[in-house]
């Protein structure tokens, strides 16, 4: 007969053996799952949904380099399901991750599909996704690089441009101090200081205008703007400059056009074009400002009979601080920001700037803006109707005038 202690011992041994066998079976299943996963080329469940929700280009690549799944943006770089990676640098990045098992990130330039002349700067990151799969994410940082470069150039150019008038004012102040006993020289130096101060004020003012135009919230209050008033104010503001240069100003074209925008900014933009036309026109010539209105747009054209623009400069004239004629711009106090302000002001109003130019024949800058259809107010229609009625009454009964009746 078995003692109670022996039975307990046998039960305990059986329990231990059962637990051990269960653990062994579980380990075997996990090991088998790992082996299957390592050898599998099936995209894990849910990965495709994640790729669909991504804004960046991304894809899953197997051991042979075959693309198994992609995000929508991947097509921009010519990456499609069932294809292989065309870019050698991307393939090398995937191989490196597969060999090391660690994620890696590289910055490179690759070409988008259908745009052989448009290489994009991208930040590519590859990570292991199981034993046979690699997740590749491609983030386009071209625009970020461009903006960083623009900021660096803007700071450098602004510092350079400000350095000249500030240095001149400092030297002229020293000259005035040295010539304190010579009133004539003091007046000459003082007038030059005034000119440099005016140049400095113009430069800082234009920098502020350009910064406001480029800011995301630079223009918030758009209103109905009469183009007739914009043209009139722009011409009036440059009449003295034109008279001093011996250049005539002429206005023509359609009337009664309206756009939606900021009147002051549009006046400055058109004024910049007129000022440039005057500067680059010979004495005795004429600058024309014309307006053309069609069903959808309003075109404001400023034409001159000046020196024109060379083909090599035409693509760069809207860059900040760029001057096609450096010597003339320095002599006339040009800042190199006028056309850049015109471009950004026009773009902020939903339009564009067009340029026609021939060296020795002159240039025409055209601002194209969306037209705003402004109906005639009811009160204005009534006034017109009343005037027509009175005119008809006069024709019908001329004795009203002779009798002193108020018409």
Automatic annotation (TrEMBL):
<dbReference type="InterPro" id="IPR036890">
    <property type="entry name" value="HATPase_C_sf"/>
</dbReference>
<keyword id="KW-0597">Phosphoprotein</keyword>
<feature type="compositionally biased region" description="Basic residues">
    <location>
        <begin position="382"/>
        <end position="391"/>
    </location>
</feature>
<keyword id="KW-0472">Membrane</keyword>
<keyword id="KW-1133">Transmembrane helix</keyword>
<keyword id="KW-0418">Kinase</keyword>
<dbReference type="InterPro" id="IPR036097">
    <property type="entry name" value="HisK_dim/P_sf"/>
</dbReference>
<dbReference type="GO" id="GO:0005886">
    <property type="term" value="C:plasma membrane"/>
</dbReference>
<keyword id="KW-0808">Transferase</keyword>
<protein>
    <recommendedName>
        <fullName>Sensor-like histidine kinase SenX3</fullName>
        <ecNumber>2.7.13.3</ecNumber>
    </recommendedName>
</protein>
<dbReference type="GO" id="GO:0000155">
    <property type="term" value="F:phosphorelay sensor kinase activity"/>
</dbReference>
<dbReference type="GO" id="GO:0004721">
    <property type="term" value="F:phosphoprotein phosphatase activity"/>
</dbReference>
<feature type="domain" description="Histidine kinase">
    <location>
        <begin position="157"/>
        <end position="373"/>
    </location>
</feature>
<dbReference type="InterPro" id="IPR050351">
    <property type="entry name" value="BphY/WalK/GraS-like"/>
</dbReference>
<keyword id="KW-0902">Two-component regulatory system</keyword>
<dbReference type="Pfam" id="PF02518">
    <property type="entry name" value="HATPase_c"/>
</dbReference>
<dbReference type="Pfam" id="PF00512">
    <property type="entry name" value="HisKA"/>
</dbReference>
<keyword id="KW-0812">Transmembrane</keyword>
<feature type="compositionally biased region" description="Basic and acidic residues">
    <location>
        <begin position="392"/>
        <end position="407"/>
    </location>
</feature>
<feature type="region of interest" description="Disordered">
    <location>
        <begin position="379"/>
        <end position="407"/>
    </location>
</feature>
<dbReference type="InterPro" id="IPR005467">
    <property type="entry name" value="His_kinase_dom"/>
</dbReference>
<dbReference type="GO" id="GO:0016036">
    <property type="term" value="P:cellular response to phosphate starvation"/>
</dbReference>
<dbReference type="InterPro" id="IPR004358">
    <property type="entry name" value="Sig_transdc_His_kin-like_C"/>
</dbReference>
<dbReference type="InterPro" id="IPR003661">
    <property type="entry name" value="HisK_dim/P_dom"/>
</dbReference>
<dbReference type="InterPro" id="IPR003594">
    <property type="entry name" value="HATPase_dom"/>
</dbReference>
<feature type="transmembrane region" description="Helical">
    <location>
        <begin position="6"/>
        <end position="29"/>
    </location>
</feature>
């Amino acid at each position: 007969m078995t003692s109670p202690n022996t039975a307990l011992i046998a039960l305990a041994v059986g329990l231990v053996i059962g637990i051990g066998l269960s653990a062994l079976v579980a380990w075997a299943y996990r090991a088998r799952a790992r082996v299957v996963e390592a050898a599998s080329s099936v995209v894990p469940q849910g990965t495709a949904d994640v790729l669909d929700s991504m804004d960046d280009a991304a894809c899953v690549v197997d051991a042979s380099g075959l693309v198994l799944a992609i995000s929508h943006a991947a097509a921009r770089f010519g990456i499609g399901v069932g294809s292989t990676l065309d870019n050698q640098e991307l393939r090398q990045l995937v191989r490196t991750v597969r060999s090391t098992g660690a994620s890696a990130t590289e910055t490179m330039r690759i070409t988008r599909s259908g745009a052989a002349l448009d290489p994009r700067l991208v930040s590519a990151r590859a990570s292991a996704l199981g034993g046979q799969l690699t997740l590749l994410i491609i983030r386009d940082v071209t625009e970020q690089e461009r903006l960083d470069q623009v900021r660096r150039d803007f700071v450098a150019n602004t510092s350079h441009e400000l350095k000249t008038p500030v240095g001149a004012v400092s030297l002229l102040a020293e000259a005035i101090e040295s010539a304190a006993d010579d009133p004539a020289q003091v007046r000459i130096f003082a007038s030059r200081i005034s000119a440099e101060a005016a140049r400095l004020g113009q430069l800082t003012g234009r920098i502020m205008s350009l910064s406001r135009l480029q800011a995301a919230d630079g223009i918030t209050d758009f209103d109905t703007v009469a183009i007739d008033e914009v043209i009139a104010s722009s011409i009036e503001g440059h009449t003295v400059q034109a008279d001093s240069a011996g250049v005539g100003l002429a206005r023509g074209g359609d009337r009664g056009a309206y756009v939606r925008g900021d009147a002051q900014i549009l006046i400055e933009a058109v004024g910049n074009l007129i000022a440039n036309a005057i500067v680059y026109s010979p004495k005795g010539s004429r600058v024309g400002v014309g307006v053309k209105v069609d069903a959808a747009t309003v075109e404001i054209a400023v034409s001159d009979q000046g020196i024109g623009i060379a083909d090599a400069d035409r693509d760069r004239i809207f860059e900040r601080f760029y001057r096609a004629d450096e010597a003339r711009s320095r002599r006339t106090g040009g800042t190199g920001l006028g056309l850049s302000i015109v471009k950004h002001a026009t773009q902020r109003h939903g339009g564009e700037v067009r340029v026609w130019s021939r060296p020795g024949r002159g240039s025409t800058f055209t601002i194209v803006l969306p037209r705003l259809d402004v109906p005639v107010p009811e009160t204005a229609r009534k006034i017109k109707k009343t005037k027509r009625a009175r005119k008809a009454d006069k024709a019908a009964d001329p004795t009203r005038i002779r009798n002193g009746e108020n018409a």
